[in-house]
Amino acid sequence: MAQIKPISRDKWQVAVDYKGVRKKKTIIGSKAQAQQWGLDREKEIEATGTLAPELKLTSLGELVEAYEKDMAANGVHFSHTKSYNLFKIREQIGAIVLSALGKQDVVAYGKKLAKTRGPNGVKERLNYLSKALKWGKSHKDYPLQPQIDAVANAISVLGTYRLVGDAVARNRSVSDAEIDTIKAQFQTMRRSDIDMPELVDVLRVLPLRVGELCKIEWTDLLPELRAVKMKRKHPTNPNFVQIVALPVIGGVDTYELIAGRPRHLARPFPYSSKTVSSYFWLGHKMAGVQDIHLHDLRAHAITWLRDNGLPKEQAKALMGHSRDSKVLDEVYTRFSADQVHGAIERTGIDKMQRRRTGEVVPLRAA
């Protein structure tokens, strides 16, 4: 049985000596709390034969700061995006007592984030929180599994509100007028170091994934081919590299849009795709354009190309689809009602008569 000695009012020294394992701790609280602490430690020794290291850090902010310092001391320097997210965690919820961090704390934080960040941005911030907690558990043996589980469960809860991730199928047809409105909004938002108008100019005509665009290095550009080397997803080859043409599309020179970027930048678009997605979300909300995602620009670009006669094989080459699938037709090609009417008229189908047998014959003149 643990030995308990009063030190002062509501302050106790508890000494555990059980099966050869010794531990002393000063407990601030009632005698019953001191007794419970001793009993819990004896149960832990009974179950594992030892005691886990105690959490030496008090607040979540202290943990995040220790995480950053430890990684930097070992030569791991975080990106601007990760450093910014960790800074915001320390600033916004760093005062939370680490041992008390629970699912509801994280859910409340996620809901607050969702007022100014998109679903990808909320998930990005919470993933960085999870990484800091996992560092404490794996590198320092802190007993943080309950907190790690709390973050994972909170992300699941926020997903049911559609505040993180985006697993809903899309068939939204985006207009050039809507894109122009959002681009104009970005041109008034001067506090960001992300060139969103230039990003929008590329993605509205060239059907790249935003992550692909942001990973292009200067050395990937091939001026003699007016193309770019791009590592892309492949069903069997994780190191698949494709030479992707950067053509003139609708009077827009896509090669110049990328190669003509300022050369002092580390890459033509040296940004995190998740940060770009979050900033796009904020921009379209401020512009008053509803129900639009950054990835919809990819669908907009491929729809325009297909509607104007680009063969499917060439469309797949620009998109990065290496094999036949229904993705091009069912996911990315999104025609509006007006486009369908126009296509019907151009083919002359509206002037044909359909029999019940399915045979199509020209409509006879009166």
At the fourth CATH level, what is the homologous superfamily of the largest domain?
Intergrase catalytic core
The succession of helices and strands, N to C, reads EEEHHHHHHHHHEEEEEHHHHHHEE
Q: Which overall shape is indicated by the principal axes computed on the Cα atoms?
A: elongated
From the alpha-carbon coordinates, what is the Rg to the nearest angstrom?
29 Å
Query: How many runs of DSSP E, i.e. beta strands?
Result: 10
- Amount of beta strand: 5-15%
CATH top level label of the largest domain: Mainly Alpha
Largest sheet: 3 strands, antiparallel
Rounded average pLDDT: 84
CATH architecture group name of the largest domain? Orthogonal Bundle
Distance between the termini: 106 Å
- Largest sheet, spatial ordering of strands: 1-2-3
- Which fold name is given in CATH as the topology of the largest domain? hpI Integrase, Chain A
Low-confidence stretches: 354-358
Q: Which class do the helix and strand fractions yield? A: alpha+beta
Count of discrete structural domains: 3
Helix-strand blueprint:
Elements: E1 3-8, E2 11-18, E3 21-28, H1 31-48, H2 60-73, H3 80-93, H4 103-113, H5 119-140, H6 145-160, H7 176-188, H8 196-203, H9 210-215, E4 221-222, E5 227-231, E6 241-245, E7 248-249, E8 252-253, H10 254-259, H11 273-287, H12 296-307, H13 312-319, H14 327-332, H15 337-347, E9 352-354, E10 360-362
Antiparallel strand pairs: 1-2, 2-3, 4-5, 5-6, 7-8, 9-10
Protein model, in words:
This protein has 366 residues and is an alpha+beta fold. The chain has three domains: 3-48; 60-160; 176-342, Intergrase catalytic core (hpI Integrase, Chain A). It contains 15 helices and ten strands. The chain has a three-stranded antiparallel beta sheet with strand order 1-2-3, with helices on one face. Strands 4-5-6 form a three-stranded antiparallel beta sheet, with no helix packed on it. A hairpin with a 2-residue loop joins strand 7 and strand 8. The N and C termini lie far apart (106 Å).
